[in-house]
Amino acid sequence: MIDDLSNIAHNPLPARIDFYPGDLRDPVFLKQTFDAVSPAGVLHFAGAVVVPESLERPLTYYSRNSYATLRLLGEMRRRSIDKLVFSSTAAVYGIPATGVVSETSPLLPINPYGQSKLFSEKIILDVQAASSSHHRPLRTAILRYFNVAGADQSLRTGQQGKSTTHLVKRIVQTLTGQQPHLHVFGTNLTTPDGSCVRDYIHVRDLVDLHVRAYRRLEVDPAPLLFNCGYGQGASVLSMVACAEQVSRRSLPTVASPPRKGDPVRLVADNSRLRHLFPDWTPVPNPLQTIIASALAWEEQLLARQMSPRPAPPPAPASDA
Ligand code: UDP
């Protein structure tokens, strides 16, 4: 596993993971890591993912998302590594007219985050096309994530970002008293309760889809590109109600203006995913599970922050 540690705040990785800290844009680091690991394929999750931040720091997003993907692909092809699973996003669709998008819907991102991921998709597809006559043509799976949320239920991993603005993270930060209230961005919109609608998917179900996509590439060279969502919308206010019910705490909210560039409704048409993997079964009660696991993870993070650091090991005896 490679990570540049830009977004890991508190949690050490499980010891059994071979971890290579570094930046995909660093060619020396990339070469040394690939020399050490000799991977058969790559699952490329790395990237910057906060939409409002991407509007303030577009160059960071094009560099960390598009350019990093380009460097990674260069290293992969030099070595004829032929399998790539890539994390893309529903932000490539921009503000869809109907609020429900299929993979063939227009690609019109409205922020640097979505655009940087669309560039990455394009780079991947072009390299794939060019590799068709190669000894080992590139096999690719592009997964367009909708709103990923929740944590591993055994609490090995969860969302850590230092500056994250995602709804579920903000909900659990409010439930744990780290902020006084939750801003509900948009309360008078053209949705049944006036707040924005998204398709939240539990991280476990998303991980499962990556494993399935990678296994498919091992046996079938056909390129994969599919939406990752349940195909069901949930409004911000319904997530608030769900959080209150799951946590049995009250969640204070403040009605706030809509966020710049927020689609009112963004829900996956997931028929392609269902067709590809008919036995894919989401976690039961996904929204409750998302909130419950995210809250348990947040509480674990807080407990770790408050517990005293372990004492440093004693200094070795001096030879003098
Ligand atoms: N949202 C909100 N309050 C928050 C954070 C998010 O009302 O503190 C809303 C946001 O406007 C959007 C939805 O929740 O409609 C999901 O936002 P998030 O940032 O989680 O993901 P996005 O859909 O922007 O990728």
Summarize the helices and strands and which ones pair or pack.
Layout: E1 2-3, E2 20-21, H1 27-37, E3 42-44, H2 51-56, H3 58-78, E4 83-89, E5 100-101, H4 112-130, E6 139-145, E7 147-149, H5 167-175, E8 182-185, E9 197-198, E10 200-202, H6 203-219, E11 224-228, E12 234-235, H7 236-247, E13 253-256, E14 265-268, H8 271-276, H9 286-306
Parallel strand pairs: 1-2, 3-4, 4-6, 5-14, 6-11, 7-10, 8-13, 9-14
Antiparallel strand pairs: 9-12
Helix pairs in contact: 3-4, 5-7, 5-9, 7-9
The structure holds uridine-5'-diphosphate.
Residues 51, 147, 165-167, 170, 182-185, 196, 198, 236, 259, 262 line the site of uridine-5'-diphosphate.
Question: Unreliable segments (pLDDT under 50, ≥5 consecutive)?
Answer: 315-320
Strand order of the largest sheet: 3-4-6-11
How many domains, as an integer?
1
Question: Considering DSSP H and I runs of 4 or more, what fraction of the residues is helical?
Answer: 25-40%
- What portion of residues belong to β-strands? 15-25%
Fourth-tier CATH superfamily name? NAD(P)-binding Rossmann-like Domain
CATH topology name: Rossmann fold
Q: What is the arithmetic mean of pLDDT?
A: 92
The number of E-state strands comes to: 14
Q: Give the overall shape, derived from the CA principal axes.
A: globular
How far is the N terminus from the C terminus?
Answer: 41 Å
What count of helical segments does DSSP give? 9
Radius of gyration: 21 Å
Question: Which sheet architecture does the biggest sheet show?
Answer: 4 strands, parallel
Please state the oligomeric state of the protein chains shown: single chain
**CATH architecture title:** 3-Layer(aba) Sandwich
Overall structural class, as computed from helix and strand content, comes to alpha/beta
Question: Could you say which small molecules are bound to this protein?
Answer: uridine-5'-diphosphate
One letter per element, helices H and strands E, the order comes to: EEHEHHEEHEEHEEEHEEHEEHH
